[in-house]
Amino acid sequence: RAAHEAGAAWGRLPAKERSARLRRWYELMMENKEELARIITAENGKPLKEAQGEIVYSASFLEWFAEEARRIYGDVIPASAKDRRVLVLKQPVGVAAIITPWNFPSAMITRKVGAALAAGCTVVVKPAEDTPLSALALGELANQAGIPAGVYNVVPCSRQQTAAVGEVLCTDPLVSKISFTGSTATGKILLKHAAGTVKRVSMELGGHAPFIVFDSANVDRAVAGALASKYRNSGQTCVCTNRFLVQKGIHDEFVEKFAKAIEKELHVGNGFDAKTTQGPLINEKAVEKVEKHIKDAVSQGASIVTGGKRHSLGKNFFEPTLLSNVTTKMLCTQEETFGPLAPVIKFETEAEAVAIANAANVGLAGYFYSQDPAQIWRVAEQLEVGMVGVNEGIISSVECPFGGVKESGLGREGSKYGIDEYLEIKYVCFGGL
């Protein structure tokens, strides 16, 4: 109700004023980036350097959409009758319910909220139960930036209440839009709830990213990209590689170099320790899933090249793990692990690799390494994903459209396309002229 009541005044503000307040919010985030980063590390264990990177990335969405707020253009369409004029207006959809995950507790909020507020919408944010403090900290800075009361609202809740609160957000008639980042299974439940009142929805759901290394690849660059793509946030990102497909000609060299890089460059530890690159997994359930995938793979003939068990630090810490002799029948190549496990499948032909990559029912990100220009075009176009990294393991950027195909979701976030998710198109016909 607070968001609904604040919506009319916020939506009528000149775009320049909304832009200025979003810009001020961005500046306050940058001024407080060290404290905000420490909150993330304390909440989810992410290494402090990664948390600092997330805050800069997170703030950049407020900067980007502050600028996009002033570029919401309509159209004048040539009419078919002489006495008519045809206009197209873009208007805010209304109250947007924003449901976000724990793995990027700041960036997943600003990527949605920046676009929503720029468009003139108000928001109700339900952060993940594991990481409510980042959302509340953003709220404090929003107040300081002059964002009016009721425009940015946060509703933290316990794990026990999550399903009930999510249902209210998706069914209440005052909510016009749902934006969710999380698992495909939860996304489907929210879609069913939203269908009752035919709400606008954006869904950024699970991934199962393939990482293909062709014989023509620069192996050292591929290993560097693999390390970044797989082990960022201890493998707990939706665009993390989940399946490595390596062509037989360079398979052994890649596995050997990848194992050495893992052992040399990755350090498991407390997120506040400067040398740590791998923090803990989010909870016990996450660790158990990694263990289950490894046990299943080994029982079917996979080999542990490095890692393979809980780290000596105990609790939710797990060793960065590399498996070889992996097949498509193993759980780790059929499900998203969301942990520090890299399974390597050997393949022979390009067609075989593309077929394996596209066999999943999801398609968020995909990566491949090749120095053959014709192959690059073919594979980039054939991969059934929303985002492709060619000779690059880290692809997220505020300027670029983020989202997937198939069961990886609906809509796009970030980029010039992200604001469209929060706008309705209204056609106005002037007659009798």
Automatic annotation (TrEMBL):
It holds the Pfam family Aldedh. GO terms for cellular component: mitochondrion. It is found in: Mitochondrion. Pathway: Amino-acid degradation; 4-aminobutanoate degradation. InterPro entries: Ald_DH/histidinol_DH, Ald_DH_C, Ald_DH_CS_CYS, Ald_DH_N, Aldehyde_DH_dom, Aldehyde_DH_Superfamily, Succ_semiAld_DH. It comes from the Eukaryota. One of its GO terms (molecular function) is succinate-semialdehyde dehydrogenase (NAD+) activity. It catalyses: succinate semialdehyde + NAD(+) + H2O = succinate + NADH + 2 H(+). Keywords: Disulfide bond, Mitochondrion, NAD, Oxidoreductase, Phosphoprotein, Transit peptide. Residues 2-428 form the Aldehyde dehydrogenase domain. PANTHER family: SUCCINATE-SEMIALDEHYDE DEHYDROGENASE, MITOCHONDRIAL. Homotetramer. Catalyzes one step in the degradation of the inhibitory neurotransmitter gamma-aminobutyric acid (GABA). This is Succinate-semialdehyde dehydrogenase. It comes from Climacteris rufus. The lineage of its organism: Eukaryota, Metazoa, Chordata, Craniata, Vertebrata. The gene is Aldh5a1.
